[in-house]
Amino acid sequence: MVVSSDDATAVRDVARLFALPAEIGTVAPHGQGHINRTFLGTATATAEASVPARFVFQQINEKIFRDVPGLMGNIRRVTAHAPGVTPVLVAARDGRPFARDAAGAAWRVYRFVEGARSVQKIESAAQAREVARAFGAFQQKLATLPGPRLNDVLPGFHDTRSRYAALHEAIAADAANRAAAARDDIAFALAHEPESGVLLELHAAGALPERVVHNDCKLNNLLLDAAGRAVCVLDLETTMPGFAPCDFGDMVRTASCAAAEDELDLARVAAEPAMLRALAEGFLEGAGALLNATEIAHLAFAGRLLALEQGVRFLADHLRGDTYYRIHRPGHNLDRTRAQFALVRSLESRHAAFERIISDLAARR
Ligand code: GN1
Ligand code: MG
After folding, report:
1. Where are the CATH 3.90.1200.10 domain residues in the chain?
2. What is the pTM of this model?
3. Could you report the per-residue pLDDT of 119-152, keeping only the tens digit for each?
4. Closest approach atom of ligand 1 to CA 34
């Protein structure tokens, strides 16, 4: 993929607002995110640096992240607390953790993490274990974040009930006239609505604690080195108060089988027992000591719930006319919905076995 000359110019202009060692030369699109616009910029060579430094430029989607200072304040605190396992945030020349370009758009800059890669589809059980261990260890690290509660920059982010409320609104409005063709998908979502309150009720009852969690533990939000070891957690914008099982659930959603999030061949969307076991082993190793019995007892459930919640979000966006997630083809959000719901079905069929794996592992700790 190439970057438009307008975007390249915009990134070069933005770069001058940040404390970078040199001007930016080449610019390329970067990453697979659905929300922000991300570019990789390579600094022109300088006398000091023989290898040109590379930087990640992200234009923050302010339709979604309305409180940019609050968001970037969170990211600054989290990266400062977890150096080495988070990317290095580059400050703007005025000292703030972001800057606005001439058109008013907000940007942040990270140093690019060299020698690491992100994985789009899970490749082995060993990789699943390492990913889950690293995200679990990140939770453990966040448990000691000093200072006040992080800003809740996206209130109700994993409040599945409010995700359902948004779906109901989208069905009622049917703004893009798509509800009829999505009748079966809507029926599947509504049949599962009773599950939406489970974690929230446990929290209200005092059994499920609020913690600082990543909140978007997608497989591709972690960088691995050539030896397959986790080096860095990415996409910190949703790191804020939340529930530990939701992070595990997002890993199950994205790393329990090798199908893509928008896989069209639904027969391929099936959680693999070896991956589920590896994810549970890794997460309990990484976060284990932190978790209480209620959290552990709801890990398997959270996998199902997060796949369901994500399907509900994609479906609502499809019905609204694709206003939230960037799409790359017509019907993309419906394709994504169907893949998520296929995963829910698969996780349901494996639920008892998955629960047994987790309780056995937990008992052996
Ligand atoms: C979005 O930014 P990105 O693409 O990593 C979304 C997540 C979803 C994910 C689905 C702020 O993440 O919650 O799980 O898409 N982020 C936001 O792939 O809504
Ligand atoms: Mg994200």
Report:
1. 125-363
2. 0.96
3. 999 999 999 999 999 999 999 999 999 999 999 9
4. 4
